[in-house]
Here is the input.
Amino acid sequence: MSDHNEPVFPEPPLAGDEAATLVGSLERQRATLAWKCGGLDEAGLNATLGTSAVTLGGLLKHMAHVEDTHFSRLLLARKPGAPWDTVDWEKQPDWDWTSAAEDTPEELLTLWQDAVARSRALVAGALAEGDPGSLGRYTTPGGESPSVRRVLIDMIEEYARHVGHADLIRESVDGLVGEDPPR
Here is the structure.
């Protein structure tokens, strides 16, 4: 993994348009998670805090799953591919969290980075075709479709929640603290 003291840390624009602000905020959350998980070996990525079973490796794999399922399903009404399509989610609803212990740090980071790259491409395509108010192709049973804005905000919230977990776990592993990587 990369050295956690030299992250690439994007800053959302201070006065950007809506799309740039939303995407910039999501990129900041992604960079923070990468920083919190960076530079650790298997033991570091499998460390837990207190009675929680949440690990940094589990967070990476879970967020890879969320990246792949959230954007592909809501923007394109598409089911995600491997490895998510091979899991019996009814029998193993926490598979993304629990199976991470079987993966190396490099495998987890690559899985997450590849999912983020796919998501970036989907968002760029959606924004090239319209604006944040444009609707995704997924339709709820009630006949509603989410806007690109809503999909991005949901993802920002998901990252923010889990970056908080990552803060605590990483501090317990090696003392790394802070909201933002050093610049």
